[in-house]
Design a protein that fits this description.
10 helices, 281 residues, globular
Length: 281
Amino acid sequence: MKNIDWYNIAQRANIEMFHYRDKHIFLYDDHRTILNVIFEASKIVEDKRIPNLIYFDKHDDACQSKTKSVLLEKMGRNSFEEVTSKDFWSFVEFDLSPRDDDWLLTGMELGLINNAVVIGQSENDNIITMPNNTYISEDNIEHKLFSIPYLKDSIDSRGCIGDSCIKDPKDKIIRSVFQFNTDKYHEFEDEIYPFILDFDLDCFTTDCNNKVYAWPEKIFANEFDTYNGCGYFLWDLINRSQFITICREPECCGGIGESNKILGYLDKYIFNGSLGTEPIY
């Protein structure tokens, strides 16, 4: 991969790029912007398989999408191969919902996202009520979607990822997306199917007196503590991912200050200061 190509993505408004180890991290405000990043990255990555998505989010962002043919019509193109960056970025900005709640299925319709697992979702019920946890796009491809608890619970000995005795058939599919605890007990598979790791900062908020606040720092630190295995598990996800995206979404975090507070937590406890949220001096 040529770094100059990745830097070109960050030349657009509302996108910043950082590095953690050998991973590119893209930071932006509106969650639908993730489609812009995936669209541009699809031209750069060597593995052309449609990536899965593992994302932390308070909402599932899986409201109904238009079909692929309708979406292409909005972009003024007959096929997705004809779509230019200008076509696509304009479409994402002006044709997708400003509520950032329909980008997931849109990405599946356009062949940008394969399967998806949302972690920590507590609002909306689009994925939870989806028949057989399946969305069938217009091109007749089945996409699996799941909503699971926070990592601390999910990788627990009785969690959907960590339980050594698979009781629910859905858990087996969830594990296949993570490629963890499938054939090897409590280990990741050797071969990596491409996936994107995404953080929506509103996943780490709480409500009090009808106002939204960032989690207390101790709660965040405990969730990703290496002692309960979450820190190590997340480190492996980061290491195995194609790239990482972070959505600030301040309106859903209680404001810019609360959003920045959570971003600082991510930087401190997960990305080792790579995001530069603390002043140098």
